[in-house]
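Entry for the shared binder. Reason: the reviewer on the internal report wants the predicted structure included alongside the sequence.
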Amino acid sequence: MKNKALLLFLISAGVIAAGCEKKRTAAERLDRVQAKTAEVAQDMRDYTFAEKDEFVVKVRAQLADLNRELDELAAKVEKSSAAVKGDAQPRIAGLREHTARLNQQLDEATNATASNWDKFKADVRKTHDASKEEFKEARQWLSDKIAP
């Protein structure tokens, strides 16, 4: 149930992100959303303790994407009005805190043992999901504030 909700959220986020990209054709946006959907399905599989390194690499790649998108969002904020900047900066700071927390959790992966692996994964996924949700909300908020 939780995975279905996450999948629907990520598909929705992909569709929204695709809609926000004006430079791409509709076919390119659809291809990108389909690729993201396939990636999400792969990401949701249950990694075993033996696959710990693969899990960490996968989440780090997603974290890098989040940080890249966060930098793009911050750049848009810098180009906006002073009022929007003032409202957006705490949101950006909160997003950076989430991604920093996720990065710290991933750094602690070497301490994960077979006995605490499921809890470790759950904690990482919880932080990751919270980061994505907060990012989605910030992107929507900013889109509403600087809409043409």
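Summary line for the report: The longest helix spans residues 117-145.
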